[in-house]
Design brief:
- The chain contains 5 helices and no strands.
- By secondary structure, the protein is an all-alpha fold.
- The chain has one domain.
- The chain is rod-shaped and about 90 Å long.
- The protein starts with a helix and ends with a helix.
Length: 114
């Protein structure tokens, strides 16, 4: 699988988690008078940052973003563990020995040709 395909795969998983969790968390955590703005807040970080720090709405936004980001981190760690295990058990290819062998073969061929 190419690097671009893997990157697209990972981005789609991240996007699915973000789009699947954040709107619901915002709707759950926002105060009743701000629930109607949850879609606008989800659609723009600029809108989310307009709420003053320390207000109930901003605290709810921060909590929703924080919990969603935590889930993204857990998912990325879970997806990287199989790769880490693969690297640990991967066979060590000793390239230095192969290079020396190739050099010896090349030297012998040049001696024979000369």
């Amino acid at each position: 699988m190419s690097m671009i395909a893997r990157a697209n795969y990972v981005h789609s998983i991240g996007g699915a988690i973000w789009n699947g969790l954040l709107p619901g968390k915002l709707a759950n955590y926002l105060p009743v008078d701000e629930k109607s703005a949850s879609r606008k807040i989800f659609g723009s970080i600029v809108v989310a940052k307009k709420y003053k720090a320390g207000t109930a709405a901003r605290d709810a936004i921060n909590l929703a973003y924080r919990e969603t980001q935590q889930r993204l981190s857990i998912a990325s760690l879970a997806l990287s563990l199989p790769l880490l295990l693969f690297v640990i058990f991967m066979r060590n290819i000793k390239l230095e020995e192969e290079d020396k062998l190739r050099e010896e073969i090349t030297e012998k061929k040049t001696e024979v040709d000369s």
